[in-house]
Write a structure and sequence with these properties.
This protein is mainly beta and 749 residues long. Helices cover 2% and strands 43% of the residues. The protein folds into 4 domains: 185 residues, 3 Solenoid (Pectate Lyase C-like), CATH 2.160.20; 150 residues, Galactose-binding domain-like (Jelly Rolls, Sandwich), CATH 2.60.120.260; 220 residues; 128 residues, Jelly Rolls (Sandwich). Strand 55 and strand 56 form a beta hairpin. The longest helix has 14 residues. It holds the Pfam family CatAgl_D1. InterPro entries: Agl_cat_D2 (IPR055149), CBM6-CBM35-CBM36-like_1 (IPR033801), FA58C (IPR000421), Galactose-bd-like_sf (IPR008979), PbH1 (IPR006626), Pectin_lyas_fold (IPR012334), Pectin_lyase_fold/virulence (IPR011050).
């Protein structure tokens, strides 16, 4: 996709000329949180609203942030700042820079005792006169605990603290109008993050010759369930080859609407709404996927209040190929915006808004090809914003372009898991929250290994990357993971800006080698720690790569020695050193000018020797493994994944490279702490080496008991020894005829 998407979309959707006027799209560039709009450089979605930051508006409330501590109101806000209104009369007031007749407010209200749902009013004043009350709720926010997140406060630490509410003013407000959001009657504080003001066009009228869902009994008042009526209308429109129109209204739909060879058009995202528990529009699955489906100009509003990966509660799902188009759909409060299952070929997804999901914004799963995902705006996602997951079959020849992805609460803004010949171009990504980075390319989740040429070009990443709570080290803004096998497909990264990265800018990590990376004209400006963090062997070429405001005193972290090769071309500056740092993980140091210096709270846990797990993310190998249970699973700090050796073939070994000769005093070995893993005794010995070829015994063979009652964990004191390579050799297992290990931790003392 070399050109920016055009604002008029009627022709591609097969909509009649009578509706053209209603489809006109007035693009207003969004503002970039806490940074100059010049940062975006024409990247990201062109959206029909202007996004205003609350902390930059007039207020008598309390500005919170900047903060990057996971699970805080400031950290989960756009730009890591927001305004908390506590007490009646507190307000935040925006002055419009363009006319608007509608607003979407990104906000948070506290959770209720016991996890109960409640609502709270927020008054809207226009030039001093009250216009209306917005109804805020905690129903769709405040999840707790570990993945999958639930709405049970008893599960521990909070996540996903914000939600969105939208409203129209009843008239168009002129440029210069003051719009105040004020607490008049709320007994709880309200935190305002952003306000998106826009001019919503009049409703699109019914196209000539089309059918209407109301003619088949659909109820626009929402009083009756319209699921079967809309299904009947879809089937009739498909059979007659006519457009199906959804008039203005809110239609209760508590089921999937199955579509194939049909055009469904609403009166606009703000007017035609499908709402309900389990609401979704789905195509038929492979091997007979739906084709020639055109969906446009309506909203899908779900009622998903926690994440359950077994529930099919996505806004759009199934398989939609054969020239299908999904455009101008507002998706909110479902599990995923679009979770599409292949194999299928040929789809365009554009000009959509995807907000407040409990999982991915969009995932192309299993052998999907020739899909263009462009000019979409995504915010507050529960997992990856945009993802391609090549499970079983390779996703290929797909493009993610000109999208804006803000605030993924878990995982990455954009991720590619395996596949071949895919492109990610001209996107704007910001404010990653936990267990991910801005842009991720990986052989993970049992994906078909990366092949061909992957193109990452002209993307801007702002405040992406995080402190991973399991690894206890940073995840890069741009990171590459070889957990399930060598990542050696060609990856070309060009004309990319990594701005104010929370930890390192670029990272390689886990499992096997990462090679064939080519970085050209990449600007690193602001990192909490390193410019490069190299944690697995391989190679990369750098030309025109510059770095400034690097937080760590040494710009490269690596304990790999010669195992990773840096090939330098012309034009590099500010990041290279021939003697990388290898030692305790430093607390981040933010010097990017947009942060105002070192104002960000460091992580609550700073990993320093002797408490650092020396094996986490280090190169690992084994004598053999079974199926997908590769050796990388033993050092990924994920207790649920595990290495299993070849079966019925003792002895078997697993080996880790600590990167340099280190003092070792203790190891912790774990198996998955599941009731399905009964108690067992594994017999093993420990040997070590400083060169990887000559090994000596560190601990002789002994039996170690793994018991679910104690977390399936064994701590092994090691006589003080200095080794670079450690090897565990398994000769027996009373629970399974193989060596098994989910987490191998190595400590100095």
């Amino acid at each position: 996709m070399s050109a920016h998407p055009t604002p008029l979309r009627a022709a591609a959707l097969g909509i009649g000329a009578a509706a053209l006027a209603g489809l006109a799209f007035t693009a207003i560039p969004q503002t970039i949180p806490t940074a100059s709009a010049a940062i975006a450089g024409g990247r990201g979605a062109t959206v029909p609203f202007t996004e205003y930051e609350a902390e930059s508006a007039a207020t008598n409330g309390s500005v919170i942030g900047m903060d990057r501590t996971a699970g805080t109101l400031a950290s989960e806000a756009s730009g890591r700042k927001a305004v908390t209104l506590s007490g009646n009369g507190k307000y935040v007031e925006f002055t419009l820079t363009a006319p608007a007749n509608a607003v979407t407010v990104h906000y948070s209200v506290p959770d209720a005792a016991g996890g109960a749902n409640y609502t709270s009013p927020l008054a809207v004043y226009v030039n001093g006169a009250k216009n209306q009350d917005l109804t805020l709720t905690n129903k769709y926010s405040w999840y707790y605990g570990s993945y999958p997140f639930t709405n049970d406060p008893g599960q521990g630490k909070q996540h996903h603290l914000y939600d969105d509410v939208r409203a129209m003013f009843g008239s168009t407000l002129a440029q210069g109008t003051r719009v105040r959001l004020q607490l008049d009657a709320s007994s709880v504080p309200v935190t305002v993050d952003t306000a998106d003001f826009e001019s919503v066009a009049a409703p699109i009228g019914q196209p000539a010759g089309s059918l209407s869902v109301t003619s088949y009994g659909a109820d626009p008042s929402g009083a009756a369930d319209s699921g079967q009526a809309i299904t009947n209308a879809v089937n009739s429109a498909s059979a007659q080859g006519k457009v199906l129109y959804i008039p203005p209204g809110t239609y209760t739909v508590n089921q999937h609407i199955i579509v194939n060879n049909v055009t469904v058009q609403g009166a606009g995202q703000w007017y035609s709404v499908l709402h309900g528990l389990g609401v979704g529009v789905y195509g038929n699955y492979a091997p007979n996927p739906s084709g020639n489906v055109k969906l446009s100009d309506f909203a899908i509003m779900g009622e998903t209040v926690e994440r359950n990966d077994g529930d099919q509660v996505n806004a759009i799902g199934g398989a939609l190929g054969g020239g299908s188009v999904v455009a101008d759909i507002w998706m909110q409060h479902t599990k995923c915006g679009l979770w599409l299952d292949g194999p299928f070929d040929g789809l365009t997804v554009r000009d959509n808004r995807i907000l407040d999901m409990t999982a991915d914004g969009l995932n192309l799963h299993n052998g999907i090809s020739h899909v263009t995902v462009t000019n979409n705006f995504l915010r507050n996602l529960g997992d990856d914003g945009l993802a391609m997951w090549s499970e079983q079959n390779a996703d290929h020849d797909n493009t993610f372009s000109f999208n804006t992805v803000e605030l993924p609460i878990l995982a990455n803004n954009i991720a590619l898991y395996g596949g071949r010949d895919n492109s990610v171009t001209d996107n704007l990504l910001s404010d990653t929250q936990t267990q991910g980075g801005g842009l991720h390319v990986a052989n993970r989740f049992n994906a078909v290994l990366l092949a061909g040429t992957t193109t990452l070009a002209r993307n801007t990443l702002v405040r992406t990357g995080v402190l991973d709570p399991n690894w206890q080290f940073g995840v890069g803004a741009l990171w590459f993971d070889a957990q399930n096998g060598a990542l050696n497909g060609t990856v070309n990264v060009s004309d990319t800006d990594l701005i104010d990265s929370s930890y390192e800018a670029i990272q390689t990590v886990e499992g096997s080698t990462v090679s064939n990376l080519n970085f050209t004209n990449v600007r690193i400006d602001g990192t909490g720690t390193f410019a490069l963090q190299l944690q697995t062997g391989g190679s990369a070429t750098f030309a025109g790569v510059t770095a400034a405001h690097v937080g760590a005193s040494n710009p490269i972290y690596s304990c790999l020695g010669s195992a990773f090769t840096i090939n330098q071309g012309a034009g590099n500056s500010g990041w290279y050193t021939s003697t990388p740092y290898c030692g305790p993980w430093p607390a981040p140091n933010y010097t990017y000018p947009g942060d105002g210096g070192t104002t960000t709270t460091p992580p609550t846990t700073t990993t320093t020797e002797p408490n650092a797990n020396l094996a986490a993310g280090k190169p690992v190998s084994a004598s053999g493994s079974t199926q997908v249970y590769g050796p990388g699973n033993a050092v990924d700090s994920d207790a649920a994944s595990y290495w299993e050796s070849a079966n019925n073939a003792f002895p078997q070994w697993i080996q880790v490279d600590l990167g340099s000769t280190r003092t070792v005093g203790r190891m912790v070995l774990r198996l998955p702490p599941s009731s399905a893993w009964g108690a067992r005794t594994q017999t093993l010995s420990v040997s070590g080496s400083t060169d990887g070829s000559s090994f000596s015994t560190v601990l002789g063979s002994a039996g170690y008991r793994f018991d679910p009652a104690t977390g399936n964990s064994v701590t092994i004191p090691v006589p003080a020894t200095s080794q670079r390579y450690l090897r565990l050799t398994f000769t027996g297992n009373t629970g399974w005829p193989a060596g098994q290990l989910s987490d191998w931790q190595v400590y100095q003392s």
